[in-house]
Structure formats: C-alpha cells, structure tokens
Amino acid sequence: MPIFFNVYWFVACTVSSSCSDAFPLVYRILVLVFVFLIIGIIVWIFVANWHRVELTVKIIGVASDALSKNLGLFVVIPLLTLGLVVYYAPIVVFLVFARLNGKIVPKESKGEYKCVWKQDSWVPAYYTLAILTMLWSLTVMVEAQVYVISGTIAQWYFTKEDAKPRRSIRSSLRNAFGPSSGTVCLSGLLICFVRLVRAAVDSASQENVPGMVNLVLRCCVRALLSAVDFLNKFTINFVAITGEAYCTSARMTYELLKRNLLSAVFVETVSTRLLAGVTFVLSAIYAIVVCAILKAASSIGVYAYIVAALAWALLIIVLGFFVHVLENVIETVYVCYAIDRDRGEVYRTEVHEVYSRLPISRNHRSPIAPIAPVV
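Given the sequence above, the corresponding structure tokens read:
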C-alpha cells in the first residue's frame, strides 16, 4: 500500500499540469526516492525480525486453535456487552430526569430581574456519582469478559486431549459473577482508577505547565500507572484459573513467571502489534474495494467515500472484537503454559512446542527456585 500510494501521487502530479508547474520534477523525484527509502527501512525491520514474526504467527495459530474449540465465547461476550447496555439504560434515564429537579428563582442582572432555573444542590453530586458508576461498571464488565475467556480456555487446556470439557463457559460465568465477583470488581476499580489518573495527567501535560518538579511528578505517576497495568496484566487470568484472591494471584503470577524465567513483554507487545497491523490492512483493503465497486457500479458520487468510510469503521469494530478475544486467549494459554512448566507437566504438546521458543527474561538470571504447586 505505501508503494502504491507513493507511485500514485508521483504519476498523478506528473500528469496534472498545475501540480507539475508548482512542484518541479527534481523535487518530485527527491520526495519519491525519500519515501522509497523509508519503505525500505520498514521492510528491513520486518526482515531482520522475521523470526519473531514467525513465532508470533505460531502463537496466534495455537490461540486460534484453542478458540475454535470454544466458539461459544463469540456468543457470550457480546451478550455480556448487551447486558451492560441494559444496565446503563436506567442510569441514563435517571440522569435525564435528574436535570428536572429544581425551581425557578429570580436573578438580578444590571438592575433588571429575570427568572432562571436553579437545579437542586444534590444534582451535580448525583451526576458525578452516576458517571463514576458507569465507568466502574464498564471496567468491571471488561474484566468479567477476560475472566470468562480465561476460565473457559483454562478448562480446555487442562483437560486431556481425548476428552472435552463440559459446561466450561457456564461454570466460568457462574464463578465470575459468584465466588470471584469481588475480585473482578476490585480489578475493575483499579483499572478505572488508573484510566482516570492517566487521563488527568495527559490533560495536565497538554497545558504545558513549566517547571522541573511538574515534569518529574508526571513521569513518576506514569511509571506507577504502568507498573499497576503490568501487575494487572495476567492477574485476572490467574484468578480465573486458580480461583485465588486478587492480591494473592498478583503475587503468585509474578513469582510463577520469575521462577520459570518467562517474560511477558514478547507475548504482550509483538502479538498485539501484529494483530493490530493485520486488522488495519484488511480494513483498508476492504474500504478500497467497496469504494471501487461503488464508483464503478453506481453514480452516488461523493457518497461512495462516505459509504467506504462507514464500511471501514464497521470492519474495524468487528475485527477489533475478534482481536480482543484472541489476545485474551493468547495470554491465558501463556499462563497455562507457565503453570505446566512450573509443575513439570505437559497437557498440550502443541502449546509447549511453540511457547518453549519464547525468549528468556533478561531481568532474572538466578537459578530456578524449587517448584511449588499453584493450583
């Protein structure tokens, strides 16, 4: 696509008389060569890291195989989202009617009196409480979805290959909104707090307040928020597998990865970037094809671009949902592999063949600690 657009603008500018007069041929060639150099550097980066890409593709393939054995997740996860929308409906209705609570009072302005509407004093507080409740409910539902995905995939992983887990999704739902509901709510509260603080820090950084102390404080807050995000990354997966409390699961997950010298960075960054890139490329190609078909088969004019943009946005949403589920499956399989390795067992041979090729963490070079049971 970059090569196509680079050649396209060069040819279009050469054909157009106004563009060729305003942009001489020498400068056009320099820009063309410069863009090709940038493309060459990107291609070289891909070639130099092709072994990482191949490993990531194999990891995604293993996760896709696990997901194909639990296709019911594609029904349950949207239903949970629909349940959140239904839960939001009365809150939004109450927010609308809360604005009607007040009275008409006189107000003096430049010696003249006029009637104005004054809301009751509790309305702003109710708005704040309702909005915070909606944000917390959103993060709790996201964590509940991760819990259901992790619990379902873990039951598939730790079941013998010749057997099939029964009612795995139902049991994961029961545990998520039953014994582990407090842990899910606590995880959602932490994520909500991190998002609010990060948004406040980002808005403060845009104001360009001078001072070294302000800069140091922002860096410290961002480092603390990143640490909380990293701590929470695999904790909810571990909770869904073991049923432990949040703090216990966070400590056991860190110790589990440390004992086995496993790094979470590779699984977290490379697979996410690769899936995001695939999603963007497929959506862009789909939008271009839709626009070309509409241009050739209809005469709607400029509306063809609007329809293509809507098709691009719709496919981004659909593929984003699949990528979200697949990323959680990858993380769950990763934690299950770490548990397997820690206990010296092999439940899924195909998973061990792929995940054993992951790079060893550089942060821990000490000998492996004695193996302890985690389940």
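The radius of gyration is 27 Å. Try to locate this feature in the token string yourself.
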